[in-house]
# Entry
Amino acid sequence: DVKVTQSSRYLVKRTGEKVFLECVQDMDHENMFWYRQDPGLGLRLIYFSYDVKMKEKGDIPEGYSVSREKKERFSLILESASTNQTSMYLCASRPGITAQHFGDGTRLSIL
Amino acid sequence: ILNVEQSPQSLHVQEGDSTNFTCSFPSSNFYALHWYRWETAKSPEALFVMTLNGDEKKKGRISATLNTKEGYSYLYIKGSQPEDSATYLCAFSNFGNEKLTFGTGTRLTIIP
# Structure
């Protein structure tokens, strides 16, 4: 079974802090994705990566950056956290154009 | 940004009854349509990936159909059980695009 692991289930940070959300997958998938989920808005894509050191902006990249130094790890970075970034963050991976495998999510609160 | 719409937003169904809901998506440059089930406190789980017009897929009591020409997919649940309570998400991708665009989901509650 594919395993996508997000480093934290719950995280509380302060406004202005630099926040790192980590995601690791164990199936050598090329594609990895970061989404946020907010009530009434569904899953929205922040960034994705189709290979090591490659990244593409999703629909809502403002205020975020990403890093993919190794194939199995895709990090989401909030450079200076703001309260409107309080959300549920989901990481996913998949090989090619197939079903996505999701992590359990990180519920991030910015105070 | 592509528009993927799901209806209804929420649904309450008596245990044992059958139900269905809809996903609408752009019909041009279609590549794939995904269905996921997302139970509370768990991660979304893939149900189906459909690529061909007229496709029908089945997994136990759950099945899905696809009409790419008119841009819709139906998800059916036969004989609903309490464990079917979840949010059902559909997602669409078009040619040459690695991204999936998700709908806002249908929240299904099964009443025992």
